[in-house]
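Archive entry: two folds, one per protein. Generate the first.
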Amino acid sequence: MKNHKFVAIDIDGTLLDDYDHYDVARLNRDVVALEEKGIHFIVASGNSYDALQAIFKDSPAVKDFVAENGGRLITNHHDILSYCHQRATLTKLLAFVNELPHPDLLSVSGQSKTFIAAEYQDVPVPYYPHHTYFSTLADVGEPVYNLNISWFKLRLPQPQIQAIVDRLNNRFAGEVQATYSGAFGIDVLPAGVNKAVGLRQLVTDQLNGSMDAVVAFGDTSNDIEMLQEVGTGYAMKNATPDLLAVADRVTALDNNHDGLLNEIELLFDL
């Protein structure tokens, strides 16, 4: 086994089951056990920090976050680095959305809350703990880290969503980094931002470690760069084909059977 000093995990489709639940007591026990072995636990997610705080409200030992797919780094409740969209780019992106199949939800992640397009006021959004609605960008009075476009009702096939991702990256080359985020959605980040970039800066600049000492777990396209750059990259058994293709290993169990925690416990003899 490599000399792992860090464990980085995705959330949706990795820690969480298909009903957005995880074994809180088991995770808390594992995080403490990892710390006792000198192993640092990191969450690397496409979720906003606001959402991550809600997800881990009963897991106070979880303190280090690579949020917004690498666009925002938080440790011990303090922002240490962030990458924001330019307003001019956001204006063009919102216009581009009109060329796409009509989304079932459109939102932007701000510093303190999620801003949802006003036409979706009747759509339940329990995964956005703090949110409001915007009609124009003038209503969004804080930095924006991420634009999310979702077709969770229409359930567009992944190849069609990937084609939209490619269109975005071609149309806005040098301005954005779009990626499939799972659950029929796309995250559109500032150019050059991904989980690997954020994780590297947290591990090397803040925690004085090396990416070779990281073992990472994920389930879909926005985890590709992270799994490629760490010492050992695990794809979940339920992962998308593109992630399975780049993973060093695959978990024995899927996200609905505690595949992540099972693998961590086996790997570190917890």
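Generate the second and append.
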Amino acid sequence: MALSQTLWQAHQAVALACLHHPFVTGIGDGSLEAAKFAYYIAQDRFFLESFARAYSIAAAKAPSWSAFQLFHQMADGVLEELRLHGAYAQSWGVDLDTVKPGSATRQYTDFLLHTAWSQDAPTIAVAMAPCMRLYAFLGQSLVNPAQPPHPYSAWVETYSSDQFEPLVQQLEDFIDDWATDTALVRQTYDYAMACELNFFQAAWQAIPQPHTQG
């Protein structure tokens, strides 16, 4: 089994915990409280900024020209997602200029940037792959063509789309080509998966009124 699949399969319990988390199930059926999703959108902005930076650092450390191009392509994709995020946040009444990162967000972004600066490109990719693969898994699991549109339908459509899965596969292909199955690689993947679950839990517990426009 390829390394990327070995790592993913080893973390199925966490993946299922995310899928069945009330925050995620609320996105899936449209029942999630709007204020919780607004908090999540605001926090995800900080995360995506760090994600883009990590891709750029990985590009500088890329072991081949094709890998350099891949990481820049992935960073460009995150920048586009951030542009869409701004419009999305506005539609949910979130003033991004007044929002500060929560502890779960900071935990995740500090980990990503520390890994990016201190490790090689394959290990950086391992730190980033859980987010990509998990969101594809969630989107594909939640999509339900028979369900009427609801406020979170666009979120589900984005991560279940035919455009998102190839991006995930490209990152995992890089891991399979360049990463080695070491204790550090497994610990890195494990920590990133734990951060994903913590991110959803923080959004579920959030009381975001101060961060929304009245």
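Annotation attached to the second fold: Residues 34-60 form the longest helix (27 residues). The chain has ten helices and no strands.
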